[in-house]
Amino acid sequence: TLDLEETLEDGTEIAFDEVNTKLFIEKN
């Protein structure tokens, strides 16, 4: 359903945000 797709997209965005935050912290 559209709701499921939206949930997966939100989850993916959150996962990427977490990874980017970790990489950013490690670099600095």
Protein architecture, described:
- The protein is 93% helix and 0% strand.
- The protein contains one helix and no strands.
- It has one helix at residues 2-27.
- The radius of gyration is 12 Å and the shape is rod-shaped.
What helical percentage do the residues reach? over 70%
Amount of beta strand:
under 5%
E-strand count? 0
Number of helices: 1
Query: How widely separated are the two ends?
Result: 41 Å
Rg, rounded, reads 12 Å
Derived structural class: mainly alpha
Mean pLDDT: 88
Shape, per Cα inertia axes:
rod-shaped
Order of helices and strands: H
- Low-pLDDT ranges: none
The biggest beta sheet is recorded as:
none
Oligomer: single chain
What's a quick, concise take on this entry?
With 28 residues, the protein is mainly alpha-helical. Helix content is 93%, strand content 0%. The model has no long low-confidence stretch (mean pLDDT 88).
Summarize the SSE layout with pairings.
Blueprint (H helix, E strand, L loop, with lengths): L1 H26 L1
